[in-house]
Amino acid sequence: MEAVAGVFKTRSDAEHALSALHTIGFPVDKTTFLTPGSVDKIDKEMETVAADATEQPGMAKAMGALLGGGIGVTGGAVLMALVPGVGAITAFGLLGMAILGAAGAAVGGAAANKIEEHSYQGLPEDEIFVYEDALRKGRSVVIALAEDDGQAEQVRTVLEKEGAESVDAAREQWWIGLRSAEQGHYSASGKSFGDDERFYRMGFEAALHAKTRCMEFDQVSGAMDAALEDVKREHPGKNVEDAFVRGYQRGREHYQQLCEQDKKAA
């Protein structure tokens, strides 16, 4: 499967895009939208929403199985979670639940089993940090898991028509927001940021992979080494190690700072 996502300026735009995907027959359980919002605010909004008779069988039961970890359920197919470094967000359906779990929100055992049964291969764990950055900026994100290239292109067409910004564009905006500080930090070590930025950024992004960013360094050193070896193979003859490792370390520090800011704001 291939994850296709679009970033929207407003929640209503994202909801409209999600509806457009369902209108063309895209499976409900392979789509979601993520949007920022407080638990109280979403609760009040959902009180006015009637139950959907066409809701996917078993959806309410799966949503009701969410336990603790700052996750609550409202409106049957809509869930809320506190994601480390982001704060309160809402998501729709089982795919949303799976992404929240990958992002670090605790998911109850019964719900986790439901996710596993649906086999969400292709979950975009390497770009969840981009979604989170968009959410911090007040934007909303629609995500769909496409079965093949043709279906992926169909999703892109719908999202673009609905006014989505691509994840690649959002990723570039994310880095632009960090670049000046990272350039100053790296240059202070006597290194040339201009020469090494590409590999430094690769390391920084690798540290934000959803599978490893919450672990202690001794638990992720193997993952870092594996990612570094991949970069070396892709760029033979290039001196990538020092820049990549420095970037990886800074990426871990960056995520920890976001989590600390979130705790202080709570």
Mean pLDDT: 80
Task: Write out the strand line-up for the largest beta sheet, numbering strands in chain order.
Answer: 3-4-5-2-6-1-7
Q: Total strand count, please?
A: 7
Binned, the helix content reads 55-70%
Compute the number of structural domains: 2
Structural class: alpha+beta
Distance N to C terminus: 37 Å
Structural features, described:
This protein has eleven helices and seven strands. The chain is of the alpha+beta class. The protein folds into two domains: 2-166, no CATH class; 189-265. A seven-stranded antiparallel beta sheet has the order 3-4-5-2-6-1-7, sandwiched between helices. Strand 3 and strand 4 (78-83) form a beta hairpin. It starts with a strand and ends with a helix.
Give a topology summary.
Layout: E1 2-8, H1 11-23, E2 31-36, H2 39-46, H3 59-64, E3 72-74, E4 78-83, E5 87-92, H4 93-102, H5 109-118, H6 128-136, E6 140-146, H7 149-161, E7 165-166, H8 167-187, H9 193-207, H10 217-234, H11 241-265
Antiparallel strand pairs: 1-6, 1-7, 2-5, 2-6, 3-4, 4-5
Features:
7 strands, globular, 7-stranded antiparallel sheet, 2 domains, 266 residues, alpha+beta
Summarize the structure.
The protein is of the alpha+beta class and 266 residues long. Helices cover 56% and strands 14% of the residues.
